Amino acid sequence: MLGDVAPQVTAYVGIGSNLDHPERQVQSAVTELGEIRATEVRCYSSLYLSPPLGPPDQPDYVNAVAELVTALQPHALLDELQRLESAHGRIRDLRWGPRTLDLDLLLYGTLQLHDSRLTVPHPRLAERAFVVVPLCEIAPDLEIPGGGPLELLKRCFAEDLLRRL
Hints:
By secondary structure, the chain is an alpha+beta fold. The protein has helices at residues 22-33, 74-87, 129-138, 150-154, and strands at residues 5-17, 39-44, 48-50, 61-72, 102-108, 113-114, 119-120, 143-144, 148-149, 163-164. Strands 1, 2, 3, 4, 5 and 10 form a 6-stranded antiparallel β-sheet that branches. A two-stranded antiparallel ribbon has the order 6-7. It has a two-stranded antiparallel sheet with strand order 8-9. Strand 8 and strand 9 form a beta hairpin. It is globular, with a radius of gyration of 15 Å.
């Protein structure tokens, strides 16, 4: 087990839900992120309501972003995120379809990684207001590895795409 532990690093996780009381799912996930071994939640954003990206016949999403400090290696952290999704009843049957809980590893320190299981920074981070706006709320001076200042990304989105809850 020592191979999956590293020096502490700051990581950011996108949280989303649009099924089974989404606000409660997101709030519960924030608590459970802090229960992951060798990990603590430093802070998290407000909750935001956003329209679905996938099939249109699904409810709006509740989204947030959490800042973690973790000693887990990126793949070990991904395993823990997927374990939490499964515990919340996440079923992976329809891409961008409705879900009880979606946890995306957005950033892991300054690491840039692309392999068969994981890409960080998250490959669609810059395209998603429901990630950029809450991330900017908790880390406005953040630099996206290989992508520049987060604040510049935020300017690309109309504020009316999201509603703060």
